[in-house]
Specification:
Layout (H helix, E strand, L loop, with lengths): L4 E7 L2 E8 L2 E5 L1 E6 L9 H6 L5 E3 L1 H6 L3 H6 L2 H6 L5 E3 L3 H7 L1 E5 L4 E4 L6 E4 L1 H12 L3 E3 L11 H22 L6 E6 L5 H14 L3 E4 L8 H8 L12 E3 L5 H9 L4 E4 L1 H7 L2 E4 L2 E4 L19 H4 L3 H9 L3 H27 L3 H12 L6
Parallel strand pairs: 4-5, 4-14, 5-6, 6-10, 10-11, 11-12, 12-13, 13-14
Antiparallel strand pairs: 1-2, 2-3, 7-8, 8-9, 15-16
Helix pairs in contact: 6-7, 7-8, 10-14, 10-15, 11-14, 13-14
Length: 373
């Protein structure tokens, strides 16, 4: 395997450890802030680093449309372009193609689609996705191209998507080849069908990947249904490789997924919520638009080690959000990313000390009872 993955402790199905890459160690459980267009929205890379993030996620679909993969390569790759010297994982572009673009045709060979920006036509094959990620953007962790089937899906539709994804996994692996400084992850599919998830996992294991993702969740099925899939899906994947739950999620989703054996996550939620006035704290989520914060001089959350969390009053943040000031969006986005990093670090410590079940109970008591955790 390209990157060593050292699991230092387990607690039930949960694990904590380190994924070692040439650009730095990734401590797990790991939350990857999403840098959609070569930026984590509203934040500088120094602010993101200050939160404790070890790795970012880049979006292949957005970057291939603008500024374009060949231009990115001429500019020195994604790391140099955005001034981020730690690891980057790039998605394959498949999810955004299915959800954002005007798809004109999906075939065995490729997906042909129209840009949501200017309507221009593009063709994405597994081979082209690997080329863009590994050779043009220069990402450290590359994802296979897959088909993310919309939810809800009947078993025949979920099966066809899973089988196409498995065939594209083989093509992605062949295109990626063997590399010393980059890793390739395969993606388990199968919607909410256990038999399909099992078959997908078996086919991925036969091909062999540096890590394995759980795809096709957080697409509308709801928290309970997601947890039911996670009761079995992570255990179908190799125990000695990292497991990545794509596009997840709310803090309570992270807690439940780590409890079930997941190691890595990404989601746009911390910055998206921050831009709209919502902040997560250790006592649950709050909406800074609410009038009750107009004269609240307490900091956002003194337990989160971030200037945005401790140096500004809720009254000031309330004012910034109500006045639609850019600084309010910056500070809440910064705090939320820092909270997600603090959450994963706290879960890692709880696993190492054999107290994750108690952590989980306490988290639910403080978060779920106070709002949508």
């Amino acid at each position: 395997m390209t990157f060593a993955f050292d699991i230092s402790a387990t607690d039930g199905r949960a694990r904590t450890g380190v994924l070692k890459t040439p650009r730095g160690d990734i401590r797990t459980p790991a939350f990857m802030p999403v840098g959609t267009a070569a930026t984590v929205k509203a934040l500088t890379v120094d602010q993101v680093k200050q939160t404790g993030a070890d790795i970012l996620l880049g979006n292949t679909y957005h970057l291939m449309l603008r500024p374009g993969p060949e231009r990115m390569e001429r500019l020195g790759g994604l790391h140099n372009f955005m001034r981020w010297d730690k690891p980057i994982l790039t998605d394959s572009g498949g999810f955004q193609v299915m959800s954002l673009s005007g798809i004109s045709k999906l075939t065995e060979e490729a997906v042909t689609f129209s840009s949501h920006i200017d309507g221009s036509k593009h063709v994405l094959t597994p081979e082209r996705s690997i080329e863009i990620q590994a050779d043009r953007l220069g990402s450290d962790i590359v994802m296979q191209l897959d088909e993310c089937v919309a939810w809800p899906a009947e078993e025949p539709r979920a099966r066809s998507g899973m089988e196409l994804s498995a065939r594209w996994a083989r093509r992605s692996k062949d295109a990626f080849g063997t590399r010393d400084a980059q890793a390739l992850f395969g993606i388990q599919q199968g919607s909410t069908f256990e038999t399909l998830r099992r078959e997908s996992s078996d086919r991925l294991r036969e091909i062999g990947f540096d890590g394995y993702a759980i795809g096709g969740l957080a697409v509308g099925e709801g928290h309970q249904a997601m947890c039911e899939v996670l009761d079995y899906a992570p255990q179908m994947l190799p125990a000695d490789r990292p497991r990545y739950l794509m596009g997840v999620g709310k803090p309570v989703d992270l807690v439940e997924a780590v409890y079930r054996g997941v190691d890595m996550f990404d989601c746009v939620l911390p910055t998206r919520a921050g831009r709209h006035g919502q902040a997560w704290t250790w006592n649950g989520p709050i909406n800074l638009k609410n009038a009750r914060f107009a004269e609240d001089q307490d900091p956002l959350d003194p337990q989160v080690p971030c200037p945005a969390s401790v140096d500004y009053s809720k009254a000031y943040l309330h004012h910034l959000i109500r006045a639609d000031e850019i600084l309010g969006k910056v500070l809440l986005s910064w705090h939320n990313i820092a909270f997600f990093q603090a959450l994963t670090a706290a879960m890692g410590a709880a696993i190492a000390e054999g107290r994750l079940e108690a952590f989980r109970r306490d988290f639910h008591a403080r978060h779920v009872t106070n709002g949508a955790g």
